[in-house]
Amino acid sequence: MDWFPLWLSLRVAGIATVLVLTLGTLLAYVLSHKNFRGKSLADSLITLPLVLPPTVLGYYLLVLAGRASPLGHVYEAVFGQPLVFTWQAAVVAAFLHSAPIYVKAARAILETVDYRFEWAAHSLGASEWRTFWRVTLPLAWRGLSSLASLTFARSLGDFGVTIMVAGNIPGRTQTLSVAIYDAVESGNGQLARILVLVVSALALALLWPAGYFSRGTRSGAAV
Amino acid sequence: MSVDARLIKRLRGVAGTAAFKLDVHLQAGSGITALFGPSGSGKTLLLNCLAGFVRADEGRILVNDRLYFDASTGVHVPPRDRACGYIFQDHALFPHMTVRENLEFAAASRSLQNGPLNRRRRLNELLQAFELSDLAARKPAQLSGGQKQRAALARILVNEPALLLLDEPTRGLDARLRDSFYQLLRRTREQVKAPILLVTHDLEECFELADRVCIVEGGRFVQSGPRDAVFSRPASIEIARSLGIYTILPAEIKALDPGRNTSRLQVFGFEVEGPYLPGHLIGDHGSLCIRSSEIKLLPAAGRASRNQIEAGLLRQSASARGILLELEHEITALISESEYENLRGRDRLRIEIPDSAGHFIGK
Lengths: 223, 363
Prior knowledge:
The complex is a heterodimer. Chain A has one domain (4-222): MetI-like (MetI-like fold, Orthogonal Bundle), CATH 1.10.3720.10. Chain A is 78% helix and 0% strand. Chain A has helices spanning 4-33, 39-51, 54-65, 70-79, 87-112, 115-123, 128-155, 160-165, 176-185, 189-219. In chain A, helix 9 runs antiparallel to helix 10 (189-219). Chain B has nine helices and 21 strands. The two termini of chain B are 39 Å apart. Chain A binds chain B through residues 114, 116-117, 119-127, 130, 134-135, 138-139, 222-223, and chain B through 51-53, 78-82, 84-86, 88-90, 92, 94-96, 105-106, 109-110, 155-156, 158-159.
């Protein structure tokens, strides 16, 4: 039994989650607190990965970050290797899979933080950055942290984009969901069953505490 | 210390609500200036413009000769650089911080020249002055309404603001807590030279606290000045009506004597004397406004003498503050139980208007 796909998936999902939490929270803050031209366009662009077929997303990524593209060249110059068909490409795929949902939900959570707390902080002399760290984020913390485990669970589950940009290289880019596909295709029913149960158990274990946290947010919504 | 703000802010009507325009010129010095008016008259919007949360369309804001806002030159100092202490409705104490942390947040946010040692001393002084020393480790959820108010007031005083903005600070408090807040605010007024702007729609609060009053209606100051001047001389019959503390009687000027500084009005066939009324002519019709609390009631007997009017008693009812009498001509009076004893059983009463208690408003 080869457990590589499980470890790879956990690593990919972990890194993707960290990226989503930092970039996504920043994006959600901008969307919830700022007015700027093209805001609804930005909102639509963020939603787009949710509705586009994974093959379309994967195609875009191959074109945008492939070895022939300018972006691909920059990546290769910085990291010393191409992005496509590496496990790092699976991180990008997982990121695209979970970021839109995280940004949307995080934006809604940040919008529920009573603006008067932020105004109070500003008029006490706090900068926007300080207000974000010391007031907005702590008040949104419970909601965002339950969202974090949801994000991790979702990052584990990408298949379509992953197989297009990271491929299916056993021992190198084969994540859990790709390994399941591979096992079914090659008639290895035993392996498929085990991996399916592992993924399901993992997802349940991640969602359970998330549900607990979000229940806590409801009753503590008065903060 | 003073504030001088001339502001125009237009709000477009959203979802069926009417468009709104705030257009005021506010001048206030040390002491408490009450912004008094009904909900939706623009009081809170004015505070938000002063604090910088809302950017006005036109005008400028000067606080102690420091320019906070000037539409013509595009100056808009952000809220964090304005020395405004703002008390929000419900206080907006940070719920995830203790009382001390709330104060420390304020102290650390503004880089005062004071070192950390001085800062610490100032925090302790404030905690002590506001009787919060024993509560410093508590979170806002563990505080009573009165304690929250003290903490909110202490928090804005940490940075020695140049202007205090209080948005209905006593809303939702019971009478006892209200009284203790009034005391607290009076003490603050003695110690702080910064102007204190108090938004309220509570007339009693104006009487308790305000040195000056601006009556706000529909986004405008319809009258402003020292409190007693405003309340004893409402500028128009509409203001008098909306304040609801006056007995308003139709009157006609019968005689004017600038030499002896007297006037004589006719009210329902009775004569009322008062000081000379500049700017009016004999024969002018108008209204006589008298603070209901200043009216004296006597049993009707014999001939009505000077400054007395007779009216039939229609209704009486007991309230927490005394007996409310409703008489003919829409006259109402609030009197104490002991005063009422002398009038019991009478159906006609004599209303005496004390000298210079009446205020004539021409049409």
